[in-house]
Specification:
With 565 residues, the protein is of the alpha+beta class. It is built from 18 helices and 26 strands. The strands form seven sheets. The protein has an eight-stranded mixed beta sheet with strand order 14-26-25-15-17-24-18-21, with helices on both faces. It has a five-stranded mixed beta sheet with strand order 3-2-1-4-5, with helices on both faces.
């Protein structure tokens, strides 16, 4: 057994079975934030390690000698972090291996659901910085990775995007999705003219790509907070001055500028390396690969055959990447990843036997202004597994907002049906959930769509099970359709495309909904799916988290259905 650790940004752990007793596969993975309830927490993931020991209590009974090897994503760290890792390694009597930050991101190409032995992939990593670099380009085949280009942390396109995030009043390294969402807003002709004018004045003063050196070039010359200050000076010259109380139109203009620069710069890099190497199957990893608009733009390039983005491309994935690299030392190519449900489980037996719901029901979140005093406010039903699809579909058909916390928790940034809030994908429901969660209007919601119906909703679909790509919606699904709550202003949507084998019960819920629901002669094999958490908090992990964060009309807790009356 290999234990992978990321003790940096969004710290995490993973448990990897290296094939001595079972198939070569990821057994368990969790981010520290899910337990501490502090988003993107850094540092040694002691709570996650305790969680993994508790999860396998029937198999792992001693606090020592549990792991054959401990791997760490990233080589450079301060002494206090080194000391904690060394102490833990000594206590476990397990050797400790460190792997390069970007190499860990790169190794995730092996998780590709279309991975083929003997095939070459071009793997591009893009992030803020890690081990002195902000980007790499590698050719990967089987267990061999050859890095052919890299950019240092000064010339970081990820850091520039984070500085724009801060400039707009958001939290850098966390709220970049809000910037991308704003960039999709449509503007009137007057503001569009202003945007084009400012863009022409600043686009060559931010960041670019040098085709000769094969590196990004940061024209600001600084990073981090200093970069944000330089951007303030740059935009003040364009007449945008009030950054603390910036109006929406100026926020949209600035967001469009950095999103356009990101897309143009990375596409230029991709085009040049496809031409140079002849490799057109692309893998994108690192934090910037969470920009689903960029991913769509690259997949639409004529020179690109396919694009894969791992389900956890940001730094939480480093723990898994380090495990993959350690396994590769033994020439093992196959990595078993059937789905991303790798975290803690909600066990029905514990809900029933300990009557946990009776002890916690009065702690349900009160965001929806419903007074909660006793159990008479709720209808509580224990469902059989085969009853769940029709019961939940019926609630959805009656326009109910449903929180779901069941089975093993997802690893990565996306909720994919086990820690989700789901509803009919209408604008009315999207607005209702925005009010419940105190969520920004410009953060678009995503749908889950049954894979076999994807072509009815989006143009040129390809299998995308982890919400990693935007797709342009079909013309017949415009703002009058029954999925207008998951279509952004620019006509795109970010679907989880769901096959039955990925999550059977969740699939059957949507299947039952589609078979029994129709509006304007349109069936609806889709639901709005957003992560189950209060705004600003991590996705729920435990039963207690779910009860605390319960908003809407019903909570499916394991097989226990709690409905507000």
């Amino acid at each position: 057994m290999i234990l992978g650790i990321n003790d940096g940004h969004n710290s995490s752990i993973s448990l990897f079975n290296d094939g001595k007793t079972k198939n070569n596969r990821i057994e368990y993975a969790i981010s520290e934030e899910r337990i501490t309830r502090i988003k993107n927490i850094r540092g040694f993931p002691k709570n996650s390690i305790n969680a993994i020991l508790n999860y396998y209590e029937t198999e792992i009974t001693d606090k020592k000698n549990n792991f054959d090897l401990i791997t760490v994503g990233g080589k450079f760290r301060k002494n206090n972090r080194l000391n904690k890792l060394k102490e833990f390694s000594d206590n476990q009597n397990a050797p400790l291996l460190y792997f390069d930050h970007h190499l860990c991101h790169t190794s995730l190409y092996k998780l590709n659901y279309d991975f083929k032995k003997g095939k070459e992939y071009m793997v591009i990593t893009l992030d803020g910085a890690g081990d002195g670099l902000s980007s790499t380009v590698s050719i990967a085949k089987n267990n061999k990775i050859d890095t052919i280009a890299q950019s240092d942390n000064i010339n970081s396109i990820g850091d520039i995007y984070a500085s724009f995030t801060e400039l707009l009043g958001f939290k850098p390294m966390e709220d970049e999705g809000k910037v991308m969402g704003l960039a999709g807003y449509q503007m009137d002709s007057e503001h569009n003219e202003t945007y084009e004018k400012i863009l022409s004045n600043v686009e060559n003063k931010i960041i670019g790509y040098n085709t000769k050196t094969k590196t990004f070039k940061n024209y600001l010359g600084v990073i981090g907070n200093q970069s944000t200050k330089e951007l303030e000076k740059l935009f003040k010259l364009q007449g945008i001055c009030n950054f603390k109380n910036m109006d929406l139109n100026n926020k949209v203009i600035i967001s469009k500028i950095i999103q356009r620069k990101l897309e143009e710069t990375v596409k230029l890099m991709v085009e040049n390396f496809v031409k140079e190497t002849g490799i057109s199957d692309i893998v994108l990893s690192g934090g910037v690969a969470q920009n689903v608009k960029l991913n769509m733009e690259i997949s639409d390039m004529d020179c690109v055959n396919s694009v894969y983005v791992p389900p956890f491309p940001s730094d939480e994935g480093l723990s898994i990447g380090s495990c993959i690299l350690a396994s590769s030392i033994h020439n093992k190519s196959d990595i078993g990843l059937q789905n991303t449900y790798l975290g803690n489980d909600i066990e029905n037996s514990k809900i029933d036997n300990n009557n946990i719901y009776e002890n916690n029901i009065n702690n349900i979140n009160n965001n929806n202004n419903i007074s909660i005093n006793n159990l008479s406010k709720f209808k509580i039903t224990n469902l059989e597994e085969n009853e769940i699809p029709d019961v939940i579909a019926n609630l959805l058909m009656n326009n109910k907002i449903i929180c779901v916390c069941r089975g093993r928790m997802e690893f990565g940034p996306r909720a994919l049906g086990n820690r989700s809030i789901i509803a009919l994908p209408t604008r009315e429901n999207a607005q209702k959930i925005n009010r419940l969660l105190n969520r920004y209007e410009h953060m678009p919601y995503a749908p889950t769509i049954l894979w076999e119906y994807a072509s009815e909703y989006v143009k040129n679909p390809f299998y995308s099970p982890h919400m990693a790509f935007l797709f342009k919606t079909k013309d017949n699904y415009d703002n009058k359709s029954n999925i207008n709550g998951v279509i952004h202003q620019d006509g795109t949507t970010r679907p989880q495309m769901l096959k039955k084998e990925y999550n059977t019960t969740y699939y059957e819920i949507i299947r039952s909904l589609g078979d029994n629901f129709s509006s304007n002669s349109q069936s609806c094999y889709s639901v709005l799916n957003t992560s189950f958490n209060l705004h600003g908090e991590p996705i729920v992990c435990s039963l207690d988290d779910a009860v605390h964060s319960f908003v809407g009309d019903a909570l499916l807790l394991g097989n226990l259905l709690i409905e507000k009356l």
